[in-house]
Amino acid sequence: MHGSKDVVDLVENTPCAIGYSGLAYATDHVKLACIATAAGSACQNPSVGSALDGSYPIARPLFMYTNGEPGGHVGEYLNWIKSNEGQCIILNKGYAPAIEVDCG
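User: That's the sequence. What structure does it adopt?
Assistant: Structure tokens below.
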């Protein structure tokens, strides 16, 4: 598929289909998988909280790589992304932020 939205659309419209996508693409028309880490153990539902605390076992972070220590505009941009303001935008779009934030 070309992207997360396409995966969710396919799963929504294909009986018995399974896909992997981000929390921000969850809809009321697809079931999110509750995942257990061992046979017989309780499963964990996906949520911003379970992604943040690592208890949802197939959550993964988004990595941003630079060629060396970022400076200038790139450094400013990355610092803004990691700021409370940037992380609140991420949270408000439906994604799990990298850190717990107060978006009150």
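The chain has a mean pLDDT of 93.
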